């Protein structure tokens, strides 16, 4: 046993030099976003009021790889390459022949994968002479990451935090303030979008996005920053999967199935897109499994349509699985997964059958998380706990089949700010909200007028 | 800049195989602990009701190195070797010629250095057939570490948590419970020691120790576990310093000064003892600097005397700097530093002039911590924030002298459960309690009858 590796570490020199852009490898022509007013394909100029041109060019780039600016790689060195673990203790606990690996992004200062893109976005905005970034945050992971990144590049940071998370996680707010950010509870009184949603006191990501976009659009020195969904955000996260490929090679194995949680999709994209590129090019048989909450089951129950990214309808229309842009999910503790849509690139892969999706209830998710904590030590965030639930299913399937399958899990962050949720679970006080047929009918009725997608 | 290393990582195979026992290298004869009843030197048998014999033998061992059991090294692989960072961003922020390095123990599942000994203690107790460990915790770091370690070796864990920390940090309690531990607020109604201290509702480490010792002494299947002070605890922490020596060699530098915070002393011992052994053997000029809170200034204001380790006087008398065994420090946020005494080995080194000590107020400490967080990203625990304060002073001294001095900081843990304290600091609501002449006079009056120390 003493000679068995538990983790696989890469040196700083192996931090990727490029991000992987999956766009040119996807089959068929890209489906463009539409301008919310004209319903015509939205071009770079339509995004210029919100984003610096360097990020807009990344958003639409046809290049298969995009170089990572050296100052961004320098910041990545604070925590990257992140470790890949072999979950030997969990395997023994499950008595499974499966080999379970997990790529752990909780080692970043903000505690999740989010700084991978926050640092890139803060850098490009600072280069463009922008003074302030406005954003939303659900669980607080994204707001923390952007606050951290802004502190390193001398930018101000203004965060609209979804009301239910603001109340559940006061210390996420303190964390953002420690890094120098300003935090508002959303819906707030500061914006039209906030004032229009007073009847939703728990808030939603969609509302908070509208508030941040409104602030950014109204000030010349302020840009907007999004923590998921968009192509350039998925792009920045691909450092995860590239490192994981190198680390799995160190371990001498190839994953049979790669599993991650999905809120807006950037964590899942970051882990899987480099693997998916290899699969698309080689025809390999790797499976990809996206885990989402039953209370907000975008990929498993949503419809594939053009919809807005935010509640107020300020963003371009994007082709995606959606529960309707003004759907307000129940306040489950996986705040980072409470989003009505998903990254268009990921939705295309689900539609094309490359990625499977499953939805899990809140209690079964926390049960999996506690099991993981008591064997592997790390207390997972509620978001990746959904992926852990899927890992337990896959490990059991391997046991039933008597096969030594290789499972790779994306453990996107720790749960240090989610212990009130663990407390509720351990006390039997956790609810299991479901998405109902009535919810679905209402969602369909709220979809905007837009062209059908071929 | 792109070729500069930010961190220095060792492979799992470089986790130390032995702990460093400084005892045989210390000048003069060891000063024995005394039995609390007879005042005669306490032997291994006196400790047998509380500890397994394997740990007692480590406590009194004359061997310079003690082999680490393989199952303990296996668990260490979950986070060890821990990273050594070069604080290049902090150096630029301070505009200092000093080279600042920090050894970061916050990567452990419990978030501090404490699991280094918790795992070793849980393992030896499980080997000895013990079913349950009882312990105290101040900031919650130690209780979390022992809860984590017990979950890996199938032991029950019962934690008495100092009242002020229990109130300030509810999520530390949830963390321990997630790993399966039972947590009591101290002083509790469950023990004589707890009931006798109802007039101290904020509690103290001394009271909580008495409660845990009482529980362990009264049950055959239960042992006591201490997170600091004792020789075997300092011993287990020396994996930190051994790794740091190897990592500083990778960086091609030797520290001119090594800085850590001191509560009971195990963190400081773990980082410095391997370096101190080299200094004692070679006569090198390295300085060692211990940072403690002005509200509980054991090393800088205490008297060097025999005193009890706990409030009720249940433990052996130990030779140490003490503020009196029933001193109840003000409820500062560095809960892990609220202890009336310090590790006897460390106290001997302070008395012998090998280690310097300095005390810092709460606000200047948090000011240093925020400065660190905004440059290096990591939000430090309030305990190591004291050491960061000392680093800022040393970096400034290097600047004044125009010298390229090498500073090594022990960053013993993160502050993810201390953000209420950061919140209070940022809002200007943090108090700065001082230790007064009246406190000192009262402490001297409470010291037990015991032989003078030569």
Write the layout of secondary structure elements.
The structure is a homodimer of 454-residue chains.
Chain A (H helix, E strand, L loop, with lengths): L6 E2 L9 E3 L23 H4 L5 H8 L4 E3 L2 H7 L7 E3 L1 H7 L4 E6 L10 H13 L4 E6 L3 H13 L2 E7 H6 L1 H9 L3 E5 L5 H4 L9 H13 L4 E3 L6 H7 L1 H13 L5 E5 L4 H17 L4 E7 L4 H4 L1 E6 L8 E6 L21 H8 L4 E5 L1 H15 L5 H20 L4 E6 L7 H8 L10 H9 L9
Helix pairs in contact in A: 2-11, 3-5, 4-16, 5-6, 6-8, 11-13, 12-13, 16-17
Question: Keywords for this structure?
Answer:
homodimer; 454 residues; alpha/beta; four-stranded parallel beta sheet; 41% helix; 16% strand
Largest sheet: number of strands, sense, barrel closure of chain A: 7 strands, mixed
Portion in helices of chain A:
40-55%
- Biggest protein-protein contact in the assembly: A-B, 46 and 46 residues
Indicate the multimeric state.
homodimer
Could you give the count of β-strands of chain A?
15
Strand composition percent of chain A: 15-25%
In one word, what is the shape of chain A? Answer: globular
Structural class of chain A: alpha/beta
Structural overview:
The structure is a homodimer of 454-residue chains. By secondary structure, the first copy, chain A, is α/β, with parallel strands linked by helices. In chain A, 41% of the residues lie in helices and 16% in strands. Chain A has 19 helices and 15 strands. The first copy, chain A, has a 7-stranded mixed beta sheet, with helices on both faces. In chain A, strands 8-7-6-9 form a 4-stranded parallel beta sheet, with helices on both faces. In chain A, helix 6 (141-153) links the parallel strand 6 and strand 7 (156-162). In chain A, helix 2 crosses helix 11 and helix 16 packs across helix 17 (382-401). Chain A is globular, with a radius of gyration of 20 Å. The first copy, chain A, starts with 6 loop residues before the first strand and ends in a 9-residue tail after the last helix. The model of chain A has no long low-confidence stretch (mean pLDDT 94). At the A-B interface, helix 3, helix 6, helix 8, helix 16 and helix 18 of A face helix 3, helix 6, helix 8, helix 16 and helix 18 of B.
């Amino acid at each position: 046993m003493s000679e068995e590796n538990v983790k696989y570490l890469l040196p700083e020199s192996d931090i990727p030099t490029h991000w992987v852009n999956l766009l040119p490898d996807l089959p068929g022509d890209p489906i463009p976003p539409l301008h919310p007013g004209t319903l015509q394909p939205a071009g770079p100029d339509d995004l210029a009021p919100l984003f610096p041109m360097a990020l807009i060019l990344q958003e639409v780039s046809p290049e298969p790889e995009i170089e990572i600016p050296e100052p961004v790689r320098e910041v990545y060195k604070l925590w990257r390459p992140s470790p890949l673990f072999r979950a030997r203790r969990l395997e023994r606990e499950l008595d499974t022949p499966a080999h379970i690996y997990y790529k752990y992004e909780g080692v970043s200062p903000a505690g999740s994968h989010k700084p991978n893109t926050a640092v890139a976005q803060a850098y490009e905005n600072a280069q463009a002479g922008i003074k302030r970034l406005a954003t939303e945050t659900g669980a607080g992971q994204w707001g923390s990451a952007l606050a951290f990144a802004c502190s390193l590049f001398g930018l101000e940071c203004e965060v609209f935090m979804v009301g239910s998370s603001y109340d559940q996680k006061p210390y996420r707010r303190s964390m953002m303030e420690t890094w120098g950010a300003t935090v508002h509870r959303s819906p707030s009184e500061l914006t039209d979008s906030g004032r229009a949603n007073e009847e939703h006191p728990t808030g939603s990501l969609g509302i908070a996005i509208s508030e941040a976009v409104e602030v950014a659009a109204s000030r010349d020195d302020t840009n907007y920053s999004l923590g998921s969904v968009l192509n350039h955000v998925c792009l920045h996260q691909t450092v995860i999967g590239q490192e994981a490929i190198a680390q799995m090679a160190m371990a001498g194995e190839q994953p049979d199935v790669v599993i991650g949680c999905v809120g807006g999709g950037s964590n899942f994209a970051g882990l899987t897109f480099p693997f998916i590129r290899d699969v698309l090019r080689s025809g390999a048989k790797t499976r990809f499994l996206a885990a989402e909450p039953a209370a907000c089951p975008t990929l498993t129950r949503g419809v594939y349509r053009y919809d807005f990214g935010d509640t107020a309808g300020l963003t371009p229309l994007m082709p995606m699985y959606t529960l309707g842009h003004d759907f307000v999910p129940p306040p489950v503790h996986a705040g980072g997964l409470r989003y009505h849509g998903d990254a268009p690139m990921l939705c295309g892969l689900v539609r094309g059958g490359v990625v499977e999706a499953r939805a899990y209830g809140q209690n079964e998710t926390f049960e999996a998380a506690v099991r993981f904590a008591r064997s592997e030590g790390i207390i997972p965030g509620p978001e990746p706990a959904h992926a852990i639930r899927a890992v337990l299913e896959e490990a059991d399937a391997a046991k039933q089949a008597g096969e030594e399958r290789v499972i790779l899990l994306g453990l996107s962050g720790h749960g240090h700010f989610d212990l009130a949720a663990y407390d509720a679970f351990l006390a039997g006080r956790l609810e299991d909200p479901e998405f109902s047929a009535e919810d679905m009918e209402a969602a369909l009725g709220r979809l905007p007028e837009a062209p059908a997608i071929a």
